[in-house]
């Protein structure tokens, strides 16, 4: 069984999430729905809603509130994508022109703001302070993660600990909120909530490590994926960190000089790729991701329902991703 087959099992739930998303997009200003729908309906995998639904079911929840929670998670994720594309000057996402290319930076940022506001309006309506606190904390940390990454741009001496904190905040905290809120809906105790939180955190870390490693390896221009985009943008990620740690003084100087160039080109990327490959940095990075996936599966070992298998498949999917 794979990720898509697991989603087919909860297809009726995911359809309810899509219906809820459409209802939440309702606004007197039709332009808002037009921009938001463009990204939400443009090929996203509904990864966070899937994690939330499976976690809620695994924890014994059978009600309808999870559709609201799943929708807010997707809204928050979409808002961050809209903002990221503006910050990164991105032109393609999921193989289509980004919203900022089509409608401009100002409109894109404001629609992202609308999605965040709409998310918390829906959460207030859900009337569960624990869930509101969990998702609010995650959203705050996501903003902190983006700022941390900005502060570490073009810093080739960033530590693994700094990198880990960035990817926890940028990516993993929202996935952790998706799994933990499933446990909250199931009225589980603090220990189980923490284990479900850790499951989401660990698959989120693995997700971002895999994404950062694939950035050096996979190119698909139809999807807006160009090899080495993180390097060009000055983002220091795990493959570089591992190679830098394994390099001697002379090699480190070469890596630093390449990374700190004002104008990087494809030739610079090929040089840095060659060094990283010689240090086995890509395989080592995938090994790191695998460790976090295994940690995640250990986190849910207490579950005795078939949903544990489904969540484990979701965790394994992270290592099988190509984009």
Give a short summary of the structure.
The protein has 323 residues and is mainly α. It has 16 helices and 2 strands.
Walkthrough of the structure:
The protein starts with a helix and ends with a helix. β1 (92-93) and β2 (96-97) form a beta hairpin. The mean pLDDT is 92. The chain is globular. Strands 1-2 form a two-stranded antiparallel sheet. With 323 residues, it is mostly helical. It has helices spanning 3-9, 11-24, 30-40, 47-58, 65-87, 99-103, 105-126, 129-151, 160-185, 190-217, 229-232, 238-245, 249-259, 266-278, 281-299, 307-320; strands spanning 92-93, 96-97. The chain has a single domain (3-320), classed as Farnesyl Diphosphate Synthase, CATH 1.10.600.10. α13 packs antiparallel against α14 (266-278).
List keywords for this structure.
323 residues; mainly alpha; Farnesyl Diphosphate Synthase; two-stranded antiparallel sheet; 16 helices
Number of domains: 1
H/E series: HHHHHEEHHHHHHHHHHH
Strand content: under 5%
SS field, number of helical segments: 16
Helix vs. strand class: mainly alpha
| Percent of residues in helices | over 70%
Segments where pLDDT lies below 50 for 5+ residues?
none
Number of strands: 2
The CATH topology label is Farnesyl Diphosphate Synthase
């Amino acid at each position: 069984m794979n990720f898509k087959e697991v989603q087919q099992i909860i297809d009726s739930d995911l359809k309810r999430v899509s219906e809820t998303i459409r209802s939440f997009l309702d606004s007197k200003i039709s332009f808002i729905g037009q921009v938001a729908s463009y990204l939400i309906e443009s090929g996203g995998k509904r990864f966070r809603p899937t994690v939330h639904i499976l976690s809620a079911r695994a924890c014994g929840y059978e009600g309808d509130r999870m559709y609201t929670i799943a929708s807010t998670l997707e809204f928050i994720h979409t808002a961050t994508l809209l903002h990221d594309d503006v910050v990164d000057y991105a032109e393609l996402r999921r193989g289509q022109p980004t919203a900022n290319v089509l409608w401009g930076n100002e409109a894109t940022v404001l629609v992202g703001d609308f999605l965040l506001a709409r998310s918390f309006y829906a959460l207030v309506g859900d009337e569960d302070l624990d869930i509101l606190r969990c998702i609010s904390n995650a959203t705050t940390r996501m903003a902190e993660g983006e700022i941390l990454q900005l502060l570490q741009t073009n810093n080739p001496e960033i530590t693994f600990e700094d990198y880990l904190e960035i990817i926890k905040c940028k990516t993993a905290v929202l996935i952790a909120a998706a799994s933990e809120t499933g446990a909250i809906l199931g009225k589980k105790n603090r220990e189980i909530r923490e284990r479900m939180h850790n499951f989401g955190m660990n698959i989120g870390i693995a997700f971002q490590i895999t994404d950062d490693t694939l950035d050096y390896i996979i190119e698909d221009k139809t999807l807006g994926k160009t090899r080495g985009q993180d390097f060009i943008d000055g983002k220091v990620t795990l493959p570089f960190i591992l190679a830098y740690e394994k390099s001697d003084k002379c090699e480190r100087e070469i890596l630093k000089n390449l990374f700190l160039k004002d104008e990087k080109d494809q030739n610079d990327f090929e040089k840095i790729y060659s060094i990283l490959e010689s240090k086995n940095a890509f395989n080592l990075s995938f090994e790191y991701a695998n460790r976090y996936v295994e940690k995640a599966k250990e986190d849910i070992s207490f579950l005795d329902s078939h949903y544990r298998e489904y969540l484990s498949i979701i965790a394994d999917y992270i290592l099988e991703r190509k984009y």
